[in-house]
Amino acid sequence: MFYSLCMKHQKKALVLAGISGALGFAPTYALPVFIFALVLALLICDDLKTYFKAGLAGYLFGFGFFCAGFYWISNALLVDVKTFGWLYGVALLAPGVFFGLFFVPPFVFWHYLKNRRVFEKILGFASVCVLMEYVRSFLLTGFPWNMLGSMFAFSDVLLQTASVIGTYGLSFLLLMVSGACYAFVKKEYKLAVFVLFLISVPVFIFGMWRLRLQDDGVSGLKVRLVQPSIPQNLKWDENTIENNLKTYIDMSRQKGLEDVSMVVWGETAVAFDLQNSIYYQRLITQAVPQNGYLITGILRHDKINQALYNSLSVMDNNGIEQAFYDKNHLVPFGEYIPFRKYLPKQFRPIANQIADFSTGEKYKILKVKGLPDFGALICYEIIFPDEAVNRKNKPNFLVLVSNDGWYGQSFGPYQHLVAARLRAIEEGITIIRSANNGISAVIGPKGQILGQIGLNEIGIKDIYLPKNLTKQTIYALFGGLNFQILMILIIAGLLFNKKRSKK
Q1: What is the pLDDT at residue 449?
Q2: In angstroms, how far is CA 189 from the centroid of its own chain?
Q3: For residues 108 and 55, is the Cβ–Cβ distance under 8 A?
Q4: Residue in 25, 27, 52, 24 with CA at minimum distance from that of residue 37
Q5: How far is CA 184 from the centre of its chain?
Q6: Which CATH class is domain 218-472?
Q7: Cα 218 off chain centre by
Q8: Which of 23-27, 304-308, 367-371 is predicted least confidently?
Q9: Distance (Å, whole) CA 123 – CA 494
Q10: How far apart are CA 127 and CA 124, in angstroms?
Q11: What is the C-alpha separation between 413 and 410, in angstroms, rounded?
């Protein structure tokens, strides 16, 4: 009866299935709900007669899926409701309108294979889906947030396979598991059991083995995370900027600072350029360990080139900058406006609220006395597989500064943390993540949380880094492109096999 009702109201059922499917992501991790929703969408697609209808089914499912999965983006507009509140509905629906297109090719290919064996159908569907995730990672600067494989983040054991096949590979495995459930509904019981066994047993064995590998203990490097959770509407208020800085300093100076190697603040914790003020340079030294450094997000102004950067700065106990990193992958419509000058006049006041940051050097290695060479990333740069580090010149660890205060009590900050854990496992690297608000944490090379400060919590956390800050992984040797080549070969094989069958 339920299926008959869904078939009677196909469009609504597909959208609702997509919305429900997004519950598979952090922090709910309702993985069975996602599998059920996807299988339902595929069953509906089975009864569709044309490629257009199959593509529309994929779009409707994707529309609901991405609207729900990215709903937290619209929360940023609530920080200044008077100015941007009228855009809330647009921001809520826009992700579904655009990203829903990425589910069209998989559903069209599913229809193309409708008369083939069930195994070929699920193999082809999974391959096209993963290929679309890869396209999503670079098209129009890319936004690979909430890759399907990140739904496995509820289990440290399941995540370890990312060290071999990456998050793209995890997405493929999840889709094959979903396909096995589809096969079960189609009464292909042997196939369903075979696929589930073939995937689950190696993944569980490898995951448990990798987690049980003996660690070498902790190093002598102690990091202090500082999270003041300053409300976003006060973070850039001219009347509170100085108090915000003093809050950071007071929190950093708490007991035990003398034993800390690095104090790490969040993105733009210093909301101005310190080069213009000796007073603030001296003031900030109170937060710097005697034999260590302060690493903070900061605005940096290059007077020579008249460029503004969203930066990370490393300062010694004299307030002197020893190294810096300028954000390379900027957020479109957040940190710069594409084609700003061509916008209609009514949108230009909104565009003027967004700074035009310049891009910095990619994969920059920061070298300071007394610390291993390390890399840096700012905010959403961590969501891009294969862009976290230069594997030919790999840093010892990564410092990631962020600010999820824009998104309030939502799913966004939890999903952002999952992305950092996946990059740590893929690259086998320790990641220090500090946020103004969000979830600040030190993440080990196996993706394990070594210590954290929760969402909306105010506090500091002292954490020793692992002795081995980096571990070589198979994925780090080959990267995600090779996996995409495998997906293309599978798709090509299915296309060739069908043509040969027709002959």
Answers
A1: 97
A2: 36
A3: yes
A4: 24
A5: 32
A6: alpha beta
A7: 27
A8: 304-308
A9: 9
A10: 5
A11: 7
User: By the 8 A CB rule, do 296 and 269 touch?
Assistant: yes
Residues written for the chain: 503
Radius of gyration of the chain (CA): 24
Per-residue confidence (pLDDT) for residue 331, from 0 to 100: 86
Domain edges within the chain: 2-212+480-502, 218-472
**Residue 313, token pair as written in the block:** 């700065």
Cα separation, 271 vs 322, in Å, equals 19
Q: Shortest CA distance to 158 belongs to which of 447, 429, 387, 414?
A: 447
Assess contact for 487 and 127: CB atoms under 8 A.
yes
- What number of other Cβ atoms are within 10 A of residue 105's Cβ? 18
| Average pLDDT score over residue span 477-486 | 90
With tokens 């969040």, the residue in question is 266
Bridge partners for 314 per DSSP:
295, 323
User: Token match 């959208």: residue?
Assistant: 15
CA distance 333 to 135: 20
Which DSSP state fits 436?
S
Residue with tokens 């090509």: 492
E strands present in 303-406: 307-315, 321-326, 365-366, 374-378, 397-402
Confidence of residue 354 (pLDDT cuts 50, 70, 90): low
Distances (CA, A) of 340 to 74, 301, 306, 337: 21, 21, 18, 5
Distances in whole angstroms, Cα of residue 120 to Cα of each of 117, 127, 185, 199: 5, 10, 16, 16
CB 297 within 8 A of CB 323: no
Mean pLDDT of the 47-65 span: 97
Nearest to 376 by CA among 357, 361, 392: 361
pLDDT in tens, 360-404: 999 999 999 999 999 999 999 999 999 999 999 999 999 999 999
Q: Which two tokens stand for residue 104?
A: 């069209």
Q: What is the DSSP letter of 336?
A: B
Listed residue (424, 426, 404) closest to 415, CA to CA: 404
The runs of H, that is alpha helices, within 369-408 are: none
CA dihedral 191, 197, 198, 199 (to 10 degrees): 110
Q: Cis ω on the peptide bond leading into residue 231 (within 30° of 0)? A: no
Our CA angle for 79, 248, 371, nearest 5°, is 120
Residues that are catalytic: 267, 327, 379
Other C-beta atoms within 10 Å of 259: how many?
14
Label each residue of 406-426 as H, E or C.
HHCCCCHHHHHHHHHHHHHHH
Band the pLDDT of 348: cuts 50, 70, 90: very low
Q: Find where tokens 């339902």 sit.
A: 40
DSSP strands (E only) in 142-290 = 218-227, 262-264
- Going by C-alpha positions, the residue among 331, 388, 380 that lies closest to residue 362 is 388
Least confident range from 262-271, 443-452, 472-481: namely 472-481
Q: Are strands 218-227 and 365-366 parallel, antiparallel or unpaired?
A: unpaired
